[in-house]
Amino acid sequence: MCRKDVLPRKNAYSVNEKGEDSGLVAWLFEQDQLAVADYPELYVYHFNGANTWDANHFKKILEVSQKLELKDSAFIRKKMHATH
User: Fold this and answer.
1) Distance CA 81, CA 72 (A)
2) Do 27 and 6 fall into the same domain?
3) Closest CA to 78 of 41, 44, 53
4) Are residues 46 and 84 in the same domain?
């Protein structure tokens, strides 16, 4: 997850290529803007219908994923919808 106000204003995220997040993650690392989450097994996907990959890609990932406990899911949902 990344707050939008941390991103560089121009060319932060190329929407035209698969793997588009690699350059952005490298930039965040260089800016010392990455933090470690204490969920080593966690990888969060948010499907909104306009993702680079289609719904089938996420469905395949979910088929081999482990469901989170409700409290953990609620914590992540709250962070994703935070406005600060």
Assistant:
1) 14
2) yes
3) 44
4) yes
Residue 20: predicted pLDDT: 65
Query: What single-letter DSSP state applies at residue 29?
Result: H
The burial of 76, by beta-carbon neighbours within 10 Å (0-12 exposed, 13-18 middle, 19 or more buried), is given as: middle
Q: What is residue 71's predicted lDDT score, i.e. its pLDDT?
A: 92
Q: Are residues 44 and 24 in the same domain?
A: no
pTM surpassing 0.90?
Answer: no
Cα–Cα distance for residue pair 73/64, rounded to 1 Å? 17
pLDDT, one tens digit per residue, over 3-14 is 777 777 655 555
pLDDT at 65 over 70: yes
Rounded to whole angstroms, how far apart are CA atoms 72 and 20? 28
Digit-coded pLDDT (tens) for 67-78: 888 998 888 888
- What are the structure tokens assigned to 72, written together? 């953990």
Domain span at residue 69?
Answer: 36-84
